[in-house]
Amino acid sequence: MKDYDNFNATLAAATCALLGSAVATPVAAQEEAGRWSFDSTLLYYGESDDRVRDISAAVSAQRDFGDERKLSATLTADTLTGASASGAIALDRPQTFTSPSGRAVYTTGAGDVPLDDTFLDTRFALNASWMQPLARLYTVSAGLGFSTEYDYTHLGANLSLARDFNKRNTTLSAGLAWSQDDVDPVGGRPIPLSQMLDVGNGTNKRDGSESKDVLDLLIGFTQVLNRTTVLRVNYSYSDSSGYLNDPYKLLSVVDPLTGDTLTRVPVGQGPDGVYLFESRPDSRTKQSLYAEVKHAFGKPVMHFAYRFMTDDWGIDSHTGEVRLRWPLGDGYIEPQLRYYTQSAADFYRASLVSGAVLPRYASADFRLGDFDATTVGIKYGHDTPGGNEWSIRAEYYQQNGSVPREQIIGNQAHRDQYPDLSAVIVQFGYRFKL
Amino acid sequence: MNASCAATLTRDADHWVGRFVAMASPCEVLIDHAPQSVAQQVLDTVAAEAWRIEHKFSRYRSDGAVNRINESAGRATVVDEESANLLDFAATLTRLSDGAFDITSGVLRKAWTFDGGDHVPSQAQIDVLLELVGWHNVEWQRPILKLRAGMQIDLGGIGKEYAVDAAAGLVETAAPGLSCLINFGGDVAVRNTRQDGKPWRVGIESWARMGAAERVVQLSHGALATSGDSRRFVFRGGHRYSHILDARTGWPVRNGPHSVTVAADTCTQAGTLTTLAMLQGQYAERVLKASGVRYWLQ
């Protein structure tokens, strides 16, 4: 039995000789999970230059109650530390800002990209869903989700229906999801495009929470093309309305000639420049189209995916991803490559120009800017003799953005207006049954 | 046919269930949506085939083909086409297992009784019997077979899986396209997808808890076979000796899995792989991995 290829061929030939033409079609067998199975992950995400760092632990539990009725629940805990870019531009001089709480100031060094005041946030999320056949060939699933963090609460519900056709080689599905998020920012909600004020002056902030409603519709199509290839195509429509601002994001107001931020003299403690809080529209409509092909080349499995997203804020994005799962010993190795590119929102502004008409909407949030990002990663999964699996995944993320040339004024040309960002992601996973 | 040969047909929610006993095992046929007459015909076909094969290849049946071969040990005998096919197949398995699998090893059971007790025969007892074991000692020139005097063949190791496939083949001829599940004592084959596209569900019995399903496998088509030492073993000196004997040594395989279940295109293939894997003892998984089949170990 040293030569296994020969072994398989010999066995197949001998069986064929014994059974003659009675040889059946290829086997299609699949195990039904009858017990609780758990999937646990521990994830580390760390951005370069000590910006955002996130440690996230998640445990999800699934139970098959037979007859294709399945319950699953996921509990996630996240700890976020560090700081992200506030939207204010870097200058050749230090800059002082009032912290979001309105009770202190913090200073950014000369030449540095201003970051939000250091934050520490812990988030807990719980999601649960139930799936079951509804009638012959129909499957329904319903879920609820809840998450909470210091200044944010999320509540969501979803429902989807799938129907199989063509001996279950084709599946059509339609889903509906709704969520409501409540934002209660530290130090209150700044009035959009109002100026950052001195410590103790909260006249531009409103107390209490604001909410955002999101409605998602999804239509999916899955087709088994042949024994080794599966195609999936999804279209989704998403409508958000309500409070869509990031209450901590700023725009610098700059001199039309020098491009430097206008200075101001604080009364007591306060900002030494003119900064306005961002203003976003109160609705956003997104549409996206996603296509995925999985193909098995013998034992290795290749996965290609592409997503196009467009929204009425003017952002168009493309995502391409390829993964190859290669069997290796008692497990597999899976390299992956992902590329993402997006165009800027119509109201994205690196800064606001003093003296010009104030636009209705403006944001300098880099995430609404023009950027592309590449992720390279590798995952190794190992099956234990007991039928469990552990895995480790490592990824490197590199983001490069740019500010439109016509928005760069005077001295800004000498400074990096859209600093690059890189991040490292490491995830440990363990899947087990009880 | 005697009373134990009765086959019964009952109706379940969306399928028919036929039951009978053959080859010392409970046998069942599950038949997807069909008129009762068709279901009855399928059951009769399957049961008749099971009994025919049992009768022909059982070494306990004085008038069967295997018995006739064993009685003629020492003399050349002409075997029929079907027996010859099984002998060729068995010879291939012997070659693939480097001699560990051997249909002439049945005589070793005179020394070994696997009843959960602690009786282990002496090496001398085994050595005497080993003289009568070994396919290489058999003259086989299809269709002429000559066993040495005292040698015996036993097709029990492959007969049940073969019977499942043979019965499935007959059903396909009698009722083309009809989905049915044939289960002879845990060796299972499914032909054709069910009308509603759903798979048949097959429980794999827990090794530790008799009667409890360790897991459920959904089978749309293809076969499952299980080989194990569930309640057939000898325990002695801290070692559990399975009832799987290595024909080269005359000793049971040690430290192997309790049970191996394999999914393959045919029941014969699945059963062969479970047997060959069990013969590898602690290395059982290597064969299964290399074969690229789905398998479950306990």
Annotation keywords:
heterodimer; A: 434 residues; mainly beta; Porin; 1 helix; 24 strands; B: 298 residues; alpha+beta; T-fold; three-stranded antiparallel sheet; globular
Q: Helix segment count of chain A?
A: 1
Query: CATH topology of the domain at 65-155 in chain B, which one?
Result: T-fold
The residue fraction in helices of chain B comes out at 25-40%
Summed over residues and divided by their number, the pLDDT of chain A gives a mean of 91
Structural class of chain B: alpha+beta
Average pLDDT of chain B works out at 85
The largest sheet of chain A is: 16 strands, antiparallel, barrel
What is the C-level CATH assignment of the domain at 65-155 in chain B? Mainly Alpha
Low-confidence stretches of chain A: none
Distance between the ends of chain A? 35 Å
Corresponding CATH architecture of chain A: Beta Barrel
What is the level 1 CATH name of chain A?
A: Mainly Beta
Oligomer designation = heterodimer
CATH topology of chain A: Porin
State the total count of DSSP E strands of chain A.
24
Question: What can you see in these coordinates?
Answer:
The complex is a heterodimer of chains A (434) and B (298). Chain A has 434 residues and is mainly beta. Chain A has 1 helix and 24 strands. Chain A has one helix at residues 4-19; strands at 28-32, 36-47, 53-64, 70-82, 95-98, 105-108, 119-135, 138-149, 152-165, 170-183, 189-190, 205-206, 210-226, 229-242, 250-254, 275-277, 283-296, 301-311, 316-328, 331-342, 352-353, 370-383, 389-402, 421-433. In chain A, strands 2-3-4-7-8-9-10-13-14-17-18-19-20-22-23-24 form a 16-stranded antiparallel beta barrel. The radius of gyration of chain A is 27 Å and the shape is elongated. The mean pLDDT of chain A is 91. In chain B, the strands form 3 sheets. In chain B, strands 1, 2, 3, 7, 8, 9, 10, 14 and 15 form a 9-stranded antiparallel sheet that branches. In chain B, strands 4-6-5 form a 3-stranded antiparallel sheet, with no helix packed on it. Chain B has a 3-stranded antiparallel sheet with strand order 11-12-13. Classes of the chains: A mainly beta (434), B alpha+beta (298). The interface between A and B is large, with 34 and 51 residues.
